[in-house]
Design brief:
By secondary structure, this protein is α/β, with parallel strands linked by helices. The chain contains nine helices and eight strands. It is 29% helix and 16% strand. About 3% of the residues have low confidence.
Length: 270
């Protein structure tokens, strides 16, 4: 075990939400873990949710890149936000893509090249599980799309109760219309956005995705992970946690988080 250093803050843009915190182990860096927090893409929650996870990952020898991004204002309606200073389509997606790409530039430069950028994985909770899986799918995006042509490619993802089928989530009003607020409408209104933004629509992702989900989750139904894994086939795996709720997955003292961390380690096996 390696005691982590104090987090380092890096801005990847000029908006107050365009920054990340890098937590490094005191010794060698075995890999990089991008940590993407949830909160239904809304401004209610921020990267403080990921700090305990980042510390735990750094304690295990990983560099943890805990990223913030522009989110949708609260309260909001199903039309989303047209304000360039807040999140939504495509700004939230542009931000998380830029945050990951910053690993190959200013972040790597600042830490003296300590980051093994061929060993980058991501872990995301809830809406962060959606964004983490979407980040892994970036190499397959069409030219000119938000997030296309990544500078840093992920080698795998752990989705913690992720929202992975945006059409299904929108139809079922998961998060009380959170998907509609993110993308600016229903699937019938903006189908092209759903096709680019929904991980299930981007299959095959091209790298392994481990979906960890509790059966007692009332925030994001386990149906989301089940549908994604069924569609992905051998590319994805479902880890079902009986009786586990939504928030246990980001409690570093819980067995649920240990299952997520074990899944990350499985992605890093050579």
């Amino acid at each position: 075990m390696s005691r982590p250093e104090a987090p380092l803050r890096f801005e990847y843009g000029i908006h107050p939400a365009q920054f990340g915190e890098l937590t490094l182990p005191s010794g060698d860096v075995r890999a990089v873990a991008v940590v993407v927090h949830g909160g239904f893409w809304r401004q209610t929650y921020g990267l403080e949710l990921g700090r305990p996870l980042a510390a735990d990952l750094a304690d295990a020898g990983l560099a943890a890149w805990n990223i913030e991004y522009r989110r949708v204002p609260v309260p909001t309606d199903s039309t989303g936000s047209a304000d360039d200073n807040s999140g939504g389509w495509p700004r939230t997606f542009d931000d998380v893509a830029a945050a990951v790409d910053a690993l190959a530039g200013p972040v790597q430069d600042a830490v003296g090249g300590r980051l093994p950028l061929d060993r980058v994985v991501a872990v995301g909770h809830s809406a962060g599980g959606h964004l983490a899986t979407w980040l892994a799918a970036r190499p397959g995006l069409p030219a000119g799309a938000a997030g296309a042509a990544p500078l840093v490619a992920l080698r795998g993802v752990v989705s913690q109760a992720g929202v992975l089928d945006l059409v299904d989530a929108a139809e079922r009003r998961v998060g009380s219309g959170a998907v509609q607020a993110l993308l600016g409408g229903d699937p019938s209104d903006v189908p092209d956005r759903y096709a680019l933004a929904s991980p299930i629509a981007r299959l095959p992702i091209g790298v392994p995705v481990v979906c960890v989900h509790g059966t007692a989750d009332v925030n994001v139904p386990i149906r989301q992970s089940e549908r994604f894994v069924a569609a992905a086939g051998a590319e994805a795996e479902l880890v079902t946690l009986p009786g586990v709720d939504h928030m246990a997955l980001i409690d570093p003292s819980s067995a649920a988080w240990r299952a997520c961390r074990d899944a990350l380690e499985s992605l890093l096996k050579d």
